[in-house]
Amino acid sequence: MVDVNENPFDGTDAIFERKQPLKKDTFTPDTIFHRDEEIEFYINALQDVIVGHDPNNVFVYGPTGVGKTAVTKWVRDKLEEKAEAEDIPLTVVGPINCRNYRSAYALVNTLVNEFRDPENQLPESGYSTDSVFEFLYEEIEAVGGNVLIILDEIDNIPADARNDFLYELPRAEANENTPITDAKVGLIGISNDLKFVDVLEPKVKSTLGEREIKFGPYDATELRDILGYYANIAFREDVLGEDVVPLAAAFSAQERGDVRQGLRILEKAGEYARMEGADGVTEAHTRRATDTIETDELLDYFEHDLSSQQALTYLATTLALIEPKHEASTKRIYNLYSSIAESSGRRVKSERKIYEFLDQLSMQGLVRSAERNLGRKGGRKYIYEVTDDPTDIINAALQSSYSDAVPSNVNGILEHYLEDEATEFEAPDTTDDEQQNLWQFT
């Protein structure tokens, strides 16, 4: 029973000294572990700025949570420090996260405003895309010298503008149709998609990939060093059990070699200990954190990483997968997508767009497809599956802002999906259109 007259909040924290180090994206470490070779490549690529040559374009790629952005920021700071000491004209913009922009116009608009004073900001609309590009070139020429633009998650630049944007911007000073004559432009692109370069046009690939730096996943030993560094800053002295950091490192290495995941595990384990009023964080708290981390990460995707249309497509793919006696074909996914979008009052896009959304989800590693030859019938079709446990995906969707799009009987269908094949849910053979009657949309 809760005493409503008693304040439940505690003014002290016996577990955490400061939680910010566990929020990797908002904390800049004093030490970078196990990236000496990548830093050496980076410095070599940008050394030309210091010795008077044109800046190189650099493409950095690797999975999430492996230090790409942290290393980029560190190298950027050291480059600016050296340029200032040597009186070398250098302007660095970014990192700008391309995930936050759904059009080339919005992205270029933001770049323009990075150069401008607060009282002279470009409005979010009112000009053509060509005009905002022209404004950007004018700003680059106005600052002059070496201009380095850093774009994080560059694979999120809209597909219809990707090739033009990534080809034209790094070559702006060589284009006689731009006002740039004295400035020297360099582009650093950071991507989580290892195959991103493969889908670019050859001329873009040649321009963007002048210097490529690959970041691989960390192994368990490396993660133990990194997580131990952050844990020493984040937790109070002597509250972590000796198995906590090694267990979080081992789990993260087994999954993806991702520092972010390890930090989430440590934070979650600490919160479980604090909720219990425990004196310290134990192996049991850490194992409990690893059990829930997958749903938490998928919830982050729904809430922060996916557009609304991508999220609905992801949910529809999961629902198609767990349906009894059915394949997650593109047509079936589209029918389910249409139903959940309409039932939740969201806009229904065309079937052609679904291919685009599925490609985007595939690039993010959330779905994968297999091509099936239809034999005598002719043609091919694609069958999709999700890369995470459907139970985790549905649980995350139910906790997200898309819970209103989840069919009310999803748990019953999921339960049958999880049962042994011997007791598989019996449903009549139906067409794609008829099969949607299994679902209850409210």
UniProtKB/TrEMBL annotation:
Annotated CDD domains: Cdc6_C
Cell division found in the keyword field: yes
Any GO molecular function: ATP hydrolysis activity
Top-rank lineage group of the source organism: Archaea
Binding site for ATP: V66, G67, K68, T69, A70, Y218
Keywords: ATP-binding, Cell cycle, Cell division, DNA replication, Nucleotide-binding
Record GO biological process: cell division; DNA replication
Segments passing through the bilayer: none
Family as reported in the entry's similarity comment: Belongs to the CDC6/cdc18 family.
Stated role: Involved in regulation of DNA replication.
NCBIfam families: orc1/cdc6 family replication initiation protein
Protein's recorded name: ORC1-type DNA replication protein
